[in-house]
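Translate sequence into structure tokens.
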Amino acid sequence: MESRNQFTQQCIARAENLSVSTTALYNKLSGVELSVSEALVRETGQDLAELVKLVGGEQTNVLPGYCIKIVDGTCLKGTDHRLKAIRNYAASALPGKAIVVLEQQSKIITDIVLIEDGHAQERSEFDALLKKVKPQHLWCGDRNFCTLKFLFTIQDKKAFFVIRQHGGMGFKELEKLKSLGSTETGELFEQKVEINYEGKTLILRRIVLNLFVPTRDKEWEIAIFCNLPESVEATKIAEIYRNRWTIESFFQTVTKNFNGEIQTLAYPKAALFSFSMALVAYNILATLRGALWGVHGVEKIEAGLSDFYLVDELQGTYRGMMIAIPRSEWEVFQGKRIMSTRPSNSQQAETQSH
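Result follows.
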């Protein structure tokens, strides 16, 4: 043990004397495979979601009995760093895209699909996303996810969806729209419709909300496709979709507070790794918020806690602690990790064998 500690100290001493160029670091980051970045977010996110549950920080399930997954895509902004091959083009390079999955109760990012081609359609990676669908999942997303294959695959996996209707999605009306009265945001209507894909037929509920106030895109109507049973009221379905906007504020938090989009990173793998690290930092913040929710209640924390000032306080405290406390005092925490209640891969295999 003593020789091991001596070796560790020698490595630390050597590391302090090394000078690593920015180019070398950048080249290293540009070689990080997308699967590594995805696993980083997924593994830490699942552990932190369990921690939020343990500290009593989960929010009330909007629809008990269902695991609500809010899904959305984002495109990293054009980079200021111009690769030699594209310096003669006016448009900035797009370093990549990501499809992010947020759990409604914990507000933790538990999964991600990364796309190296920033100009590719998000739909090109829907197959990878659909592999993550499990029974009793309820997937909520905007109209970009409204494709026949996406909806039928979720149905085939005995899962559910609340997806905004895409204007190009054809359907057959099985009945006229029925008025269900007013909500806080608009007049609510419902009807049964039919869609078809590869010889299969699916009957859906189509919920229409005529808004009192238009959206930021100047739209006065929101139409939603869902396959939830009739026992789930249309008002509840509209509420579930409205809660989807949680993920919009999440993207703002990542971009502004955690530098999720670094303008000088042009290589896709480097930019997407940086974005993934920002997601991990966001999840740690969400875990802290969850702990505060468990003690003080959701309403009080949501009304009085600023993500910006919380992050600023943590960053300032960290810098001060690193100055005031010797490096050796932190070594005891190396290798520590959250004690997960999830079974390990070997335990899962053993359970399946039985």
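Note: The chain is about 40% helix and 20% strand.
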